[in-house]
Design brief:
It is globular, with a radius of gyration of 19 Å. The chain has helices at 11-18, 20-28, 53-70, 84-95, 118-125, 161-167, 170-173, 199-211, 226-237, 260-267, and strands spanning 2-6, 33-40, 74-81, 99-104, 130-134, 152-157, 179-186, 216-223, 241-245, 271-275. Strand 2, helix 3 (53-70) and strand 3 form a beta-alpha-beta unit. It has a 10-stranded mixed β-sheet, with helices on both faces. The protein is 35% helix and 23% strand. The chain has 281 residues and is of the alpha/beta class. The longest helix is centred in the first third of the chain and has 18 residues, at 53-70.
């Protein structure tokens, strides 16, 4: 399996790449080959005085490559120009990546209302599962908030087809996951369930599948706004990563703001693993 790790060479990206436990977690789920990608913005030109961005970025990627190779992975590096989320998505599709990883400091509640960060744009457009790896927000040399990426998972489901598709990722995560909490949020109009359906029973069925892999499982049904309740569940459970599916039935999803999955990516305190429709799991 291949993974793309996107880096802007910031302290947040460096924390993701240089954390040995983080790399070990990727190996535990079957990642063998890592592609490091850094994007030079289109408006930055090589001829600008005092700015040899490409050379500096290649030197930085060479340092990162050594760390990753020493952890036992095959590594390729890519220094490209363009719009970051578009180039990252394009490379992931071209190489057939099973996962894209991007580090993020997260934002304040006010900043969360502004769509523009690479992580959030990737959440809107990615065609492969996306891991948003959260680091400390204020530190000059930040640490990862959770270095054991998949050890303790929170899975949020509305029982839609795409949520079920996201659940299938546990077949890959099982070698790295020890505990999981499965959460469904009931709303007045719940399109994912027929009127006579029992959400507790549906969650128990999913739990049985995970328990067969020796994963310790809890289930919970909440009521209210889906994004708010998933964030409350995250605060209560303190998972390594929150796993969620993104509906994205058409290109219109790239133009519409405020989906539950985007809100979770923007607001979560910890890591988020987002699985888009049709992604190879």
């Amino acid at each position: 399996m291949k993974a793309v790790i996107a880096t802007d060479l910031s302290a947040a990206s460096e924390a993701t790449i240089e954390n040995e436990t983080c790399l070990e977690c990727l190996g535990n789920i079957g990642i063998e080959e890592i592609h490091l990608v850094t994007v030079i913005p289109s408006n930055v030109h090589a001829g600008m005085p005092g700015m040899d961005f490409e050379k500096r970025r290649r030197q930085a990627l060479d340092r990162y490559s050594t760390v990753i190779e020493n952890a036992g992975f095959d590594v390729e590096t890519h220094v490209v120009r363009g719009t970051p989320h578009r180039r990252i998505t394009g490379i992931a599709e071209t190489i057939g990546a099973s996962l894209t990883v991007v580090g993020s400091r997260g934002k304040s509640p006010l900043e969360n209302r502004v769509i523009g960060s690479t992580a959030r744009n990737l959440a809107r457009t990615t065609e492969t599962p996306l891991l948003v790896n959260r680091v400390e927000r204020e530190a000059d040399e930040p640490d990862l908030l959770e270095s054991h990426l998949f050890q303790r998972m929170l899975y949020a489901t509305d029982f839609s087809e795409n949520a079920e598709h996201a659940f299938e990722l546990f077949s890959v995560l099982k070698n790295a996951t020890e505990e999981a909490r499965l959460v469904h949020v009931q709303t007045p109009k719940d399109p994912g369930l027929p009127e006579d359906a029992n959400p507790e029973m549906r969650l128990d069925e999913l739990a049985t599948q995970l328990e067969a892999w020796d994963i310790e499982v809890e289930t919970e049904v909440r009521e209210g706004d889906p994004a708010d309740e998933v964030m409350a569940a995250e605060a209560d459970y303190e998972p390594s990563t929150t796993l969620v599916g993104s509906r994205g039935h058409s290109r219109l999803r790239r133009l519409l703001l405020g989906s539950v999955s985007e809100d979770i990516v923007a607001r979560a305190n910890g890591n988020v693993l987002l699985v888009p429709p049709g992604a190879h799991v």
